[in-house]
Amino acid sequence: MEKRVLIRAGLRRHRGAVLSLMLLAALTALALCGVLAVSQSARMYVNSETARLGMGDMTLWVSGAGDGAALAGDAANVPGVTGVRAQQIIYSEYEIGEQESDSEGQLIAYDPANFAYKMLESDLSGYADAPQDIAPGELYAGAAMRSMFGLDVGETITFPIARSGGKVTFTVAGHFEDPLMGSSMTGMKSFLISKSDYDAIAKMIGDAGSNGLARRGQMIHVDAGGAMNAAELSRAILEHTSIGAHLEFSHSAGVLRGFMLTLHNVFSGLMAAFAAVLLLVTLVVLGHAIGAGIEQDAADMGRLAAMGADSGLLRGVQLGMYALGIAPGLALGLAASGPVSAALLAMTVDTTGLLVPARVPVGLCVAVLVAAVALLVGFIWLRTAKIAHLKPIEAMRGTNRTAAKACATPIGSMLALSLAVRQVASGARRYAGVVLTALLLTLFASMTGRIASWLGPSGEGLMDAFNPADLHIAAQPMGDTPIDAVDTVIMQHSEITDRYALAMPSVSVNSVNMTANVITQPERFHMLAGETCMGEDEIVVTEFVAADLGVSIGERVNIAGPRGSGAYTITGIYQCANDMGANIGMSREGYIRIGEDRPQIWCEHYFIADPQRQGEIMAALGETFGGDVYLHENSWPGLFGILAAMDALTMAEYLLTAVFVLVVTMLTGGKLLLFERRDLCILRAMGMSSTRLRVSFALRFVFAGAAGALPGTAAGAIVTDPLAGYLMRLYGISNFASKPGALALVMPGLMVTAMFAVFGYAASAGIKRADLGGLIAGE
Amino acid sequence: MEAILSARGVHKTFPGSENRVLSDVNLEIMPGEFVAVMGRSGAGKSTLLYALSGMDAVDGGQVFYKGKDITKLAERDMARLRAKEFGFVFQQAHLVSSLTLLENAVVAGHLAGAKDARAEAESWLTRVGVAGAIGRLPHQVSGGEAQRAAIARAMMGALGLLFADEPTGSLNKRSTQDVLDILSTISAGGQTILMVTHDVRCAMRAGRVLYLEDGKIAGEMQLEPYSENADLRGREARLTAWLSALSW
């Protein structure tokens, strides 16, 4: 009974601190549960949708095999395969307005009876009824096409099917959800068209013969009931069927899920790191609040102890009081994580391509929060231990309070400054919370800043990670256009300073299907370890491949191509995040041993003297060669969607950082005002204006914030790249290095310190209201 | 001679109360005067001090300092006035707890615009007899030493008026005597002092005593200037008799 009365009284007295902790607990729980909700919902949704559509354990893209029925039949007879489903597709480039695609699209014949894709409403906020048929001349595009190309309902999209004007134009009737390649992280894009349009285009391709630009093909989904891993299934299919001769590329369900979930995973990884920082900051703030609260309540505790209350009761009261703030905060965060994650998932539909329904994994969240509560309760119990050593009479007299220490800092004529220095120096313990918070938040903001810096304003970091080598412009003649003609157009605008050629054929490495980056200048590969592959029997592999195949530098692997196979030595590890890192790199000479050296496979990569004119050159090339030359830059359309999502995430993290700084400042400032009310009143009575006092008060937060931000910045310089690098490695990006400028290095610390200054000034508003009369009354 | 401080029709009511704590107060303090305000507990003595020093707002009336109405001053101007013209001594020493005795005075000196705040602070602290404790923090010195340091702090700069609110209220007999001696010495040097007290031994150090009753000036007594050789017993007797006549 008495405990309840005391807890109630404590809540009244410390409502500011308890409410602040409630807010911090709510934000921490929101971040933790939000991460779990987003990652779990997205993972479960992609799994359930690919299963519902019957996409199996592996999808193989083939061409040149008629309607593909024979290949599908062969695949069904492979030992261990439990089911095969095929979709008729047409590979074709496409143009939307002035924009050309940088990779082929896939026109899929709409077959709702067998592949019941979900159609989205025009504003992508929900699902629309799927049509029985798609009207001729209309198509459905993935939702990500909106962020990639701004493709909306009613707009047109053109597919160059054959040379000499053999184009087909469709009007967008709506957007659909493609759980296989709908994300803007995936270069290949699917479109649903009517069966009649499909047949008409297939006929056009047949009639065009060698003038055809598009190709007929199939997507073959193979299911092994999960009994074989990707390598085993791939090996089995290639060994028992002739699919290898028609294969464009293949991906396991795991790799495809990786593509689809890249954004969710990056978001979840960053937010999980942030949630951990928030939990630490909450602990720091809690520790500070308890310390200050005990100091404030010491006299009353002394009186209660004199009345016979033991330390167990007094500590229990503290525990109860803070637990009553934290527990509802955590519950609030958990409750809010549903709508917040739903909003997040809905906001990113046009980037992820999926309208993922938010499902908070309540059991998992509760388990995580219970662990957090246990941590916090243990911490409270530890921090209240000093109550056991309280001497009643000392506490009542206030002699137990830590008196200010004499300090050597001089009081100069700049009073606001020197008083601030003095106060911080003589009462450093009271600013410990601010220092630690500044350190942690600076460290985290550094990591966020590093990722943003690495990403670059136009996503250069991501592109460098995805491309095996650097480039300004790349051009690949699709027909008879000589590459010299491309050179001539480029040189009309800028000098060509350097060039190399790159081909990306499919090969099988130890029977696992992969993309080979075949290059005329192997020294251009982004090497991470070892040497590049200069010899004709040498290759380089990504970290992902090395780990996936269990091979390392110096070992030999067997590589099969269209013309044969051979043994190659791994000479190094290079970076290429394309295909989630499922790549190998080799020289032109190396590839010729097993593959065909046709002019059409080579894409010429140029470096120009004036990169500012890149856009102009691309426009000129497009105008001159139209669909006859495939062009791309060090970018892809989906990049902007990703950049926008990363910018939003960065902003959200900075916003949360600001909220935490605000709460910590208000809490610390409130306690300081309480403890120093008398001194502040005296200084006001002595003639120091409230504005000057407030500036001095804010300066203390500047000093304390800077004291934390400095080691935070130093720690950030040392550990953020490895931390962010570790995070990025999970997504196939091996050599994360942000190379920040001096300003980018110090900016997070400056921002955090500036926030403490602004909020410190705001927290000192009470100085203006300090009642001077109280001093005369002898309070 | 023009009054250094004057009040005209000052009145004040506390929020939630119908009774005026100050009612139509009119008074004048001349430069160099040592005026004591006496009255029973709750008569409004401290409230009058807050009102006259600009530490608290009044509901009506005017307070002039050197001819300027300070009730109309903005917070910044009022702060400047307190820094450069007014000094305060409270019942408690009210020294800034994180500053040493010397630093408390130095801060006041800087605020008052003293040219050499440190030298002036040392000088005042020596004059009030705490030279040996100037490097100590307030909690490291006795109540008497702290109060003497508070007087030194109040005297920093070219002080116009020293306000003292029960300056000996929390001191023992010996310290009370020391503080009163300091105030008398300062007063003899020409410093204007307005002191609120309920202690006759304090009030008799003043040259004029005002008696406050129910928020009004109910009486005024002029005393000959205090000196070390004054007839203390006679002075005390006269003051006590006057106060008795006012139902003290």
Characterise the protein shown here:
The complex is a heterodimer of chains A (779) and B (248). Chain A is of the alpha+beta class. Chain A has three domains: 58-259, no CATH class; 414-459 and 636-779, no CATH class; 462-635, no CATH class. Chain A is built from 24 helices and 24 strands. In chain A, the strands form three sheets. In chain A, strands 1, 2, 5, 6, 7, 8, 9, 10, 11, 12 and 13 form an eleven-stranded mixed β-sheet that branches. In chain A, strands 16-17-22-19-21-20 form a six-stranded mixed beta barrel. Chain A has a two-stranded antiparallel ribbon with strand order 3-4. In chain A, strand 6 and strand 7 form a beta hairpin. Chain B has a domain at 98-159. Chain B has eight helices and ten strands. In chain B, the strands form two sheets. Chain B has a six-stranded mixed β-sheet, sandwiched between helices. A four-stranded antiparallel β-sheet of chain B has the order 2-1-4-5. Chain B is globular and about 45 Å long. The mean pLDDT of chain B is 90.
Summarize the structure.
Chain A has 779 residues and is of the alpha+beta class. In chain A, strand 3 (95-96) and strand 4 form a beta hairpin. Chain B has 248 residues and is α/β, with parallel strands linked by helices.
Largest sheet of chain B: 6 strands, mixed
Class per helix and strand makeup of chain B: alpha/beta
The tally of domains of chain A stands at 3
Largest interface: A-B, 35 and 43 residues
Largest β sheet strand count, sense and barrel closure of chain A: 11 strands, mixed
Radius of gyration of chain B: 18 Å
* Radius of gyration of chain A over all CA atoms, rounded: 32 Å
Q: Name the helicity range of chain A.
A: 40-55%
Q: How many helices of chain A does DSSP assign?
A: 24
DSSP strand content of chain B: 15-25%
Number of discrete helical segments of chain B: 8
What are the segments of chain A in which pLDDT stays under 50 over at least 5 consecutive residues?
none
Q: Care to count the β-strands of chain A?
A: 24
> What level of helicity do the residues of chain B show?
25-40%
Give the assembly state of these chains: heterodimer
Residue stretches of chain B low in confidence (pLDDT < 50, at least 5 long) are none
**Order of secondary-structure elements of chain B:** EEEHEEHEHHHEHEHEEH
Mean pLDDT of chain B: 90
User: Which overall shape of chain A is indicated by the principal axes computed on the Cα atoms?
Assistant: elongated
